[in-house]
Every structure is written in C-alpha cells, then in structure tokens.
Amino acid sequence: MGSRYAAADxxxxxxxxxxxxxxxxDRAAVMANIFLQADLLGFTTHGxxxxxxxxxxxxxxxxxxxxxxxxxxxxxxxxxxxxxFLPGPWVxxxxxxxxLRRVExxxxxxxxxxxxxxxxxxxxxxxxxxxxxxxxxxxxxxPAERTVSPQGGRDPLFSANPLAFAAPAGxxxxxxxISMSVTAGGYVARAAREGRKLPQPCLKDSEGRLSDDPAAFxxxxxxxxxxxxxxxxKGAALSAMLEVLSMGLGGYGRADASSxxxxxxxxxxxxxxxxRAFGTEANFLRQTRALCQLWESNRSDGDGEVRVPxxxxxxQRSTQLHDGVExxxxxxxxxxPWAEKxxxxxxxxxx
Length: 351
Hints:
The chain is α+β, with helices and mostly antiparallel strands. It is about 40% helix and about 15% strand.
C-alpha cells in the first residue's frame, strides 16, 4: 500500500480541488467527505481514486456545478428526483439527509434518483444512517453501461449494480457494499493497469470463453455475474431486481434512447428504515448483536478467517481516522496533475 495522510488533510485537499473546479464550498466539502469515507472504510477503488473522474466531469460540464434536483414525485415517505447530472456524491448526500429527517415521522423512507452523476462508493453514504440507529439499503444501476453478462449469455447486459446495506449491531454495524458481478470493473481496470491477471477466471471474452485476462473484458468481453460460471443465474436475477428498484421505480433507464448518452450517470434506489417504528431499539439490537456474535463464533473451515461484514471496515475507519489514511499508491499519482493544474498544494504524507 501507499503513504498515510491525515484524514483532515485529505478532506481539505479534495475540498479545495472541487472548489477550484467550480463547486461552492459547502458542496465541495460534501463531495470530499464521501470520497474520504470510502477510503476510511477500505473501498480503495471508489474513494479518492474517483476524484480525478469527478474533476474531469466538472471541467467538461458533464457534471453541473449549480442548481437543485428536480422533484418528480413526493409523498412524504417516498420521493423521486431527477438530478439532471448534478455531482453524484453531493446529490445523494442530500437525499440521505432528507430521508433521515423524514424517517422519524414515517418509519420507512424510500427515494429514487435518476440521472445522478456517478455516486462512487455506496458504503460511504451509510455512516450517518448507522449513527442515527437506522437500517440503510442503497443500490444503483447505470443505464448507459453494459458490462455484466447473464448466465449462459456472451453479451454484456447489466451494469455492475452494487448493493450496500447497513444495520446497527453493537460495537460495529453489519455493513457491506458488493456488486452483482464476481468482481468490480474498478478491480479489472486496476489489474490491466498493473499488467497482471485476475485471481480467477471471472471474465468472458467476446466469444463467451472464460478468462482471467483483463484484456478479454477490454476487447468486448464481459464480467461474470455473482455466482460465476456455475451459478450466475442467481447474480443475474439479483441484477434484474436492482435495476427494477433503481431504473424501474425511478422511471428512467434502458427503455429510454437518451440514456445511452448518459455516460457513468446512475439511477439510484435508497431506503432508510427506523427499527423503532417496529418495536423497541433494545429488541432490535438484541437480535443484530446475537447474529454477529453467532457469526464470529463460527468455527473456521481452515481456509480463512470468519469475518462478519462490517467488522473490519468499521475498525479500519476508526484506526485510519486516528492514525492516518493509507492510500493505494497510484491514487496521488493520478490526482497530482489536477492539483498542479488547479494550483492546489498536495498534502504531505505523515512521517
């Protein structure tokens, strides 16, 4: 891994970059926070690694710097926004805040967003939900993207369709952020950049043959759905469900010809649930704690550690806030040209 940086320094650095790229200070700070949170939790392909992409979209006008999302529907406990290419980390942070403000009254609040610029790491939006004692479900799809092939097919059909979930459970939350493909596109791109193969054949080439070579994907191939070559029908079914929740409920997606020009813009589904609408908080935590404890105490099969989703990420977040954030080596290399262009001083790594 790379050098460590103070979390506050990274946040300030990213905030200044986004301000110089045209965002107001408050919006720039929200953007910077989401990318920082991703790296704090250990999601290194979708944290500060995505800063250059977002700066490029702001510079080119693909992301708009001003304005509010357009409200398409609002019933109090559910709402649908058209972001019209506002920066994803900012507009989704607004939706999470709105849901948390409403959930005390409604118990469950559901939101969809169409045409949000890429929202990056889904797990990064969930710490405020956890800290509010709520359950969060978040997914997105990309109408213009086809990277994941269905079971038995050779042609890519779905986007990666990540799903994040969080629930309070005592010392650490149950927390995961997983795509409905065997691996994420970011890891394929990183392997290609570093000239190495993937750990297993999780790709198909353009003829439908299994491969571990990133070039197979880059030359018209696809990524396997969750479940792989043998059980990929499960991942394909989940991909379809998540596209229905995001594109279907949002009312915009693959059926719309204009979506083909939307680049990496996302359709988003968000749900925040207050357990106290169903019973006491103590009873809820009694169940989630028991689940985590039973999971932790499960005997190892000898091939790896037994780890509850969220246990390592939450501990890593706490450690890195205190000891500094360890960035993947290529991240600062990719940001440096933008820092020089926008005349923002690079942060100094910790000794």
